[in-house]
Design goal:
Helix content is 70%, strand content 2%. It contains 18 helices and two strands.
Length: 463
Amino acid sequence: MTSATLATGSPAVAPVTPPATPPVPPPVPSAGRAGIVILFLLALVVVTLAEAIGNVAIPLGHGKIVLLPLLWALLMGGGLGLAAPRLPRALRLPVALQHAAGAILQPALLLFVAKLGLLVGGSLPKILSAGWALAFQEFGHFFGTMVFGLPVALLLGLKREAIGATFSVGREPSLAIIGERYGMASPEGRGVLAEYLTGTVFGAVFIALLAGLIASLGIFNPLALAMGAGVGSGSMMAAAAGAIAAQQTPEMAKEVATFAAASNLITTTIGTYFTLFLSLPFTVWAYGVLEPILGRGRTETATAPSEAVVAHAAPAFGLPALVLIWLATAAFGLIGNRLTYGTAIDGQVLTGAAIIVGAVVVGEILYRLASRRLPAVVWVSLIGMALTYPGTPFSTDIAAATGRINFLALATPILAFAGLSLAKDFSAFRRLGWRIVVVSFMANAGTFLGAALIAQFWMHPPV
């Protein structure tokens, strides 16, 4: 799930300040301008190869797993980093470039967010018609991790590590919450760190395979699965929504992306506050109830790295550098749009790409003017929705231009950068006990399936 990780407060109520982020390790050497150029060239090669491979369906009983170009990009990028010590010097991906790729990932994700916002705007009436399904499925996101993960954690012998590993999907806000409440050297800190590292290394791959398999069984409404895909992590949402959309008609695929984006926006907006005031206290209470039953007599705990390996501080990109990142990422997306979806790079497509980049630039400017009180993803989403909302001038033309760019084509370069950044975390990941990795997978499955189950119930209530 990088993590992507979208609350306004009234003037009369002081906004709740999330816990401070725990200390990060010392900064790594700078990649330098030449290194950044090399990184983008590597990403271009990875994206081109991934799109050339295309979709690969693997039958699995009555279902199937669809391996999308975004997954190939993630796997190739990660493999390139892991194989670096054995490659010729000219082909190695040094640690500095791996950290640079991780720093580029977050701003690059804003292009995907803008594209989804543009889809959501034109479909707001349909989204609002989902009503209670979209509202209540969020409880599945925030409690599903604990419901699915905590019993398994206790049965496998984890103690209080289980709290940190199962109260959320373990993205950056969750690290901050646990770091402030318990400290990262605590059992809870080791648990949330394990969830964070597992999600970073395998989260997108796991959730894409799971979502694709569940979608192929035909037992869920695709829109219920789309809402389940909005787990609050941009990369994980992209992977899950892509795996679901790949098995739908073109029109339904657009609706899947729309509902996934709406769900992810809600999850990200209220996520920090929900996990702080509801999910964590509930998981602590459930641990107290279940541990004497499921964990009695078990003293073995999983191993986790003792140091606080959290997200490394990203370089402070200036707006000109960010614009270059967005332009390059958009260009990679257009290449994938041509290779996989056969869309010619003509004037209308270039206009659509310019609109997407423009929405991101304006969103970033508003984010900075508002003193960063709301995440940039909120501003970018709102601008995208406003541009295609029915009644907005030229909304039909904007929707037509941006609609020719498939949202999955923009996801592939993002997952390529995610893959190129993975190897830096793999040494810490290898030190994790296998039990806590299993628990992390269960927590990620829980947030997806929990939300999908609730959405399915509200969309098709029992008679």
